[in-house]
Amino acid sequence: MIKLKKIDYFYIKTKFKYHKKLKNKFLELINNSPSESYGNITRTDWNLNESKNYRNLFNLYFNEIIEKIGKKIKASEPEINSLWFQQYYTNDLHEWHDHPNTSYSNVYFLELPDEEYKTQFFNILTNKPFKDFDIEEGDIITFPGTLPHRSKKNLSKKRKTSIVFNTKYNRLNVRY
To answer: Does a structural domain hold residue 17?
Structure first.
């Protein structure tokens, strides 16, 4: 017999302290990037192998954040498995999914029209989305890559833009 058992777990919320300073630069680079539509997402470079012209700016500011997240979760030697952007226009959405073959998924909310359109996480114990996530524009959230999540339909007239990246840490630094 297989039973689901509850354990306490976590997600990490990081305030990107350079959000106001860099938001428009990231958006300029993304808006001038090659993209395609994917499912119900108007613009993304998720499936494109071309060079990402925002990668250098991303690396300049996010490598330190990824190191700090590693310290918080008692891990080191991080690797970024993948990096992409997504832009959701009115009525765009991303169905429930996960990110297999990675330890952690990270979402930087570059543009978030309203907290209502933040990423939702699915609780398999209750068969409903979790309700208590406090996320706003400029935040980075880090969560286990296998946690089912989605982007609800954007009913706003404003665009939602996120930079998503998957990470793994090659060394666990747990001391008991």
So the answer is: yes
